[in-house]
Amino acid sequence: MKLEHDFFEKSTLEVARELIGKVIVRKIDRKIIKGRIVETEAYIGEEDKACHARFGKTKRNSVMYGPAGHAYIYLCYGLFNLLNIVTEEENKPAAVLIRRIDPLSALDKNLKSYGPGNLTKYLKIGRDLNGIDIVKSTEIYIEDDGVQAHNIIRAPRVGVSYAGDHAKRKWRFILEV
Length: 177
Known about the structure:
By secondary structure, the protein is mostly beta strands. 10% of the residues lie in helices and 31% in strands. The chain has 3 helices and 8 strands. The chain has helices at residues 5-8, 12-18, 116-122; strands at residues 23-28, 31-44, 71-76, 80-86, 94-103, 140-143, 152-155, 172-175. Strands 1, 2, 3, 4, 5, 6, 7 and 8 form an 8-stranded antiparallel beta sheet that branches. The protein is globular, with a radius of gyration of 15 Å. The protein starts with a helix and ends with a strand. The relative contact order is 0.24.
């Protein structure tokens, strides 16, 4: 079952935890690529020193200020597109980074998990999808296939050491296997 807007309109930490175990679906022409979300990371508001909104609204992060359920995709280190899903209410910039997936597509089931940069390559997600409503989209969306995620652990965020104590917040959710 495809996730609806109300799923993403909740608190960012709640969405980040509840996305664990859900399936991201990418359709390109007749090809369908899927991956189970096994790690997420929350970014919440202008006061969060690890969040792109920490300096206020810009052209780059303006999607974060929009409605929940939209994709916020940005280029990281000039190499990787990273996929985030906007959460909460409009004008409150918050999003969940999809950090890692387990491939589910028939030919790829034996591959290792993909991290945030490689999962967008695997799912063929580029910045052209930035701002897309993933609830209404037929190109990219998230579904609940009924699999229950157990053993979810919380950990500090990674790659944001510049944020000081904000980097230590346990806003990363990981499916423990």
